[in-house]
UniProtKB/TrEMBL annotation:
InterPro entries: AAA_dom, DNA_Partitioning_ATPase, P-loop_NTPase. Pfam families: AAA_31. The lineage of its organism: Bacteria, Pseudomonadati, Pseudomonadota, Betaproteobacteria, Nitrosomonadales. CDD domains: ParAB_family (cd02042). PANTHER family: COBYRINIC ACID AC-DIAMIDE SYNTHASE (PTHR13696:SF99), P-LOOP CONTAINING NUCLEOSIDE TRIPHOSPHATE HYDROLASE (PTHR13696). Residues 3-172 form the AAA domain. This is Chromosome partitioning protein.
C-alpha cells in the first residue's frame, strides 16, 4: 500500500483539490485508490456528503472506538473510496495526546488496511497546521506532497513543513520523502514565476516540474460533487493532474519498497 500525505500548514493552497483530483487521475489509470479526509473542516467530505455518505462512519471512530480503517472506508458513486471527516477530529490532540503511541496509531491502522487491500494508494488530505493528525499522516506516509500556491506566504509555510519533516527523521530513522507542487499558477502573472523561482532556490530538485494552473473549473466541479475528470476531462486542469500522475510515478519508483 502506497501512502501519500498532502499537507501544507497554510490553508487555501489547493490541498483538497489536489487530493481529490490526483486520486481521480490514479483511478483513471486503473489504480485502486482511497481518500482519507483528515481535516475537521471536512471540505473533501462536504463534496460528497449529498450522495449518501454514512456520516456516522468517520475517521474519529478509528481513534475513539478503534474501528479499523478498512471498515470506515465508503465507496463513492464514481468508484473512489473515502473515509469521511467530522469536526470531532479536533478532539484528537486533547483526548489522546501527542505521545508516540498516538502518533503511530494511524500508521499501524494503515498497515492493517494494507493487509486487506495491498494494492491501494491512499491519499491523506491533512488539516493545515502541525498537530497530532498531520504529524500522524507524515509518520505514516511514504511521500509527503506539499502544495504551494503562487504567493509568498505559501512558500514560508512550505519551508516550515520541510523543517517539521526534518525534525521527525531522527525519530523515524529515515528521511521522509517530499515533493513540492506549485498550485494556482497563472503564467500571465509575474508572481507565479517569482514564486516558482524561490521554490526551486529553497527546495531544489524536490520541486515538481508539473504546475497546477488556476482554473475556475476546480471550484465548479467540487460544487456539484465531481472531480475534474468527471466535470471536463479535456480541461487544462484535468491535463495538469494527469501530468502530475505521470511525474509522481517516476518519484515513486525511487522510494523504498512500501508495505
Amino acid at each position: 500500500m502506497l501512502k501519500i500525505a498532502i499537507f501544507n500548514q497554510k490553508a487555501g493552497v489547493g490541498s483538497t483539490t489536489t487530493a481529490l483530483n490526483l486520486a481521480a487521475a490514479w483511478q483513471r489509470k486503473r489504480q485502486p485508490v482511497a481518500l482519507i479526509d483528515m481535516d475537521p473542516q471536512a471540505q473533501l467530505t462536504e463534496i460528497y456528503k449529498h450522495v449518501g455518505l454514512e456520516m456516522q462512519q468517520h475517521l474519529f471512530k478509528f481513534y475513539q472506538a478503534g474501528i479499523p480503517l478498512v471498515d470506515l472506508v465508503q465507496p463513492l458513486r464514481n468508484g473512489l473510496q473515502l473515509i469521511p471527516a467530522t469536526k470531532e477530529l479536533m478532539k484528537v490532540d486533547t483526548e489522546f495526546g501527542r505521545g508516540p503511541a498516538t502518533l503511530k496509531r494511524l500508521g499501524d491502522g494503515l498497515a492493517q488496511w494494507g493487509l486487506v487491500q495491498p494494492d491501494n494508494t491512499v491519499f491523506m488530505d491533512c488539516i493545515p497546521g502541525i498537530g497530532v493528525i498531520s504529524l500522524s499522516a507524515m509518520f505514516a506516509s511514504d511521500l509527503v506532497l506539499v502544495p504551494v500556491s503562487a504567493d509568498y506566504l505559501s512558500i514560508h509555510s512550505a519551508a516550515k513543513v520541510g523543517k517539521a519533516l526534518n525534525a521527525l527523521e531522527p525519530v523515524l530513522k529515515r528521511r521522509i520523502a517530499r515533493r513540492y507542487l506549485l498550485t494556482r499558477a497563472d503564467k500571465r502573472k509575474e508572481m507565479t514565476s517569482e514564486v516558482e523561482q524561490e521554490m526551486r532556490r529553497l527546495f531544489g530538485h524536490e520541486v515538481l516540474l508539473t504546475k497546477i494552473s488556476e482554473q475556475a473549473a476546480f471550484t465548479e466541479s467540487a460544487r456539484i460533487g465531481q472531480h475534474i475528470f468527471e466535470y471536463d476531462a479535456a480541461s487544462q486542469g484535468a491535463r495538469d493532474y494527469m501530468t502530475l500522475y505521470f511525474e509522481l510515478l517516476d518519484v515513486i519508483k525511487q522510494l523504498p519498497a512500501t508495505a
